[in-house]
């Protein structure tokens, strides 16, 4: 459905760097672009949407060539019918929720608009202005507006990154259901594994300059772990004697864990440490 | 209005007429110009912006002098304007309008450009992906969300035209009923040692300036309390 | 961490798990087992190191009856280091050092003395494999 093969210069802290990408999406497929920030994920979405022109290459959707630098073809964004959910939502501050959606509709259709408001559970908020909404509500408006234009392709840029973790999980499931309902070919940019596994059928792992891996999230992002221990990276916070052992407290992300350890000679407070977790001993509790 | 007679009201009407027409011309002129300055890609933008802002720092008489010279029928441009376009711009109301437009341009342009530049670029990109033309984007997205800038610019340009003196004196010559606006009339009253008349003009102009600045303050505070 | 050099004798995959059997390098006839979450590419005959944390090593004296654990071997106590709650017990197992950390109460209940013969026990899922 969507076919692209292009090279584009990405500005990075180490100077401009060419990114080469070749991707093909089948109809209804959801592809995640996963990778560190600054690798060019958002730029790639903007190239697909027609908001920027690639240095070189070709983008086609079905039989329509959107962009072909060799033949000097470039369809402007407004002709591509691409639904774009921006990371900062980009809702029109001067329009109520309903008007944001109505503005997006190619032809006014009140019934369809009400359907969309119901699908995204926004009906009670339809008369509010964007600044009267919470982050999660704005995110749903952004998605509803992108759908209101009846797009042939949906692009989502870090759709959940601005939300706190609890809301993130709930909204992720909601988006999953909505995407399941509308069955649109979708490209989702995320650097969150939860997003990738829940929302995408396939994932393209972007590294500086290239697509490093392409496949199902399971195949690409869950490589076999030698020895059966999974390492989390953490930082040593405290080393305290505990009888014949040492109690070591480690920060992993925003959480801390304490563990008993016999050998602490190599550990330094403030230094990075690999926390190995035995695959069968980890205890999981819904948080 | 202790000492204002019917004939003395006339300069005020002329002032209002000049300010209204100037402001309307500026709105039409400044919106596309501000849009180009804020969102365009041309490397000429800083030069054009600087030229437009020159009246901010130039003594008004400098501008008035150049306009007088170039509009004068003895100059090449003045003759061309008169012979080809049939425009007589020295000591006429049309000439005043053109002079005022140039002189008040930065006061309209600056708030507009600032307001446009403050708009998140994603807002415009979002409208583009929604299939909207650039014209629709201007009227439905850019201008409604730059309302405060447009209002400030309008009020400032209007007020500044009311208060201008140097350009209208050089270019207009202060012809009664034609180009003698309130600020010139005040000057003439002082020249004629009619201090009572001068006071009346001055008081009206001061009150007007106060109301305008208060209005501007209210626009700004209203804008601040309504985040996007 | 206890690290025991060993040679793989059997590798079995299934249900996203890997079952490993190995023989300690210290002496022949000392079997060890480990189960690993994930399918790990390992070959029989490869030299590996089996690792387990000291706190996961249990000790027993005069153990009788059936027990599911297969990592159970006789060793001699060569060091005792008692704290108020925990005691570290150093063992000699055919020249291989094994350390076990148990509660001081349990150490007293077992009446552990240097020179005692004990059995050390580790569940298969607490054994990790490091390739040598």
UniProtKB/TrEMBL annotation, chain A:
Asked whether the UniProt record includes Glycosyltransferase among its keywords, one would answer no
Q: Which CDD domains match?
A: ABC_Carb_Solutes_like (cd03259)
Gene3D superfamilies per UniProt: P-loop containing nucleotide triphosphate hydrolases (3.40.50.300)
Output the PANTHER family linked to this UniProt entry.
PUTRESCINE TRANSPORT ATP-BINDING PROTEIN POTG, SPERMIDINE/PUTRESCINE IMPORT ATP-BINDING PROTEIN POTA
Q: Which InterPro entries match?
A: AAA+_ATPase, ABC_SmlMolc_Importer, ABC_transporter-like_ATP-bd, ABC_transporter-like_CS, ABC_transpr_FbpC, P-loop_NTPase
> Do you know which SMART domains this protein is assigned to?
AAA
Q: Name one Pfam family in it.
A: ABC_tran
- What is the official name of this protein in its record? GTPase
Alphabetical keyword list: ATP-binding, Cell inner membrane, Cell membrane, Ion transport, Iron, Iron transport, Membrane, Nucleotide-binding, Translocase, Transport
Automatic annotation (TrEMBL), chain B:
Instruction: Give its localization.
Output: Cell inner membrane; Cell membrane
Q: What is its main location?
A: membrane
Locate the transmembrane regions by residue number.
Answer: 12-38, 50-69, 89-109, 195-216
Q: Which InterPro entries match?
A: MetI-like, MetI-like_sf, ModB_ABC
The cross-references to PROSITE patterns, in alphabetical order and at most eight, read: ABC_TM1
Q: How does it sit in the membrane?
A: Multi-pass membrane protein
- Tell me the CDD domains matching this sequence: TM_PBP2
Q: Where is the ABC transmembrane type-1 domain?
A: 12-216
* Alphabetical UniProt keywords: Cell inner membrane, Cell membrane, Membrane, Molybdenum, Transmembrane, Transmembrane helix, Transport
Superkingdom assignment = Bacteria
Keyword check for Transmembrane, yes or no: yes
Q: Which Pfam families match?
A: BPD_transp_1
Q: Gene3D superfamilies given for it?
A: MetI-like (1.10.3720.10)
| Function, as annotated | Part of the binding-protein-dependent transport system for molybdenum; probably responsible for the translocation of the substrate across the membrane.
Which family, according to the similarity comment?
A: Belongs to the binding-protein-dependent transport system permease family. CysTW subfamily.
Q: What is this protein called?
A: Molybdenum transport system permease
Species per Swiss-Prot/TrEMBL record: Jeongeupia chitinilytica
UniProtKB/TrEMBL annotation, chain C:
**Which keywords appear in this protein's UniProt record, sorted alphabetically?**
Molybdenum
Describe the location of the Mop domain by residue ranges.
66-131
- Which InterPro entries does the entry link to? Mo/tungstate-bd_C_term_dom, Mop_domain, Transp-assoc_OB_typ1
Annotated TM spans: none
Protein's name in the database: Mop domain-containing protein
Q: Tell me which species this is from.
A: Jeongeupia chitinilytica
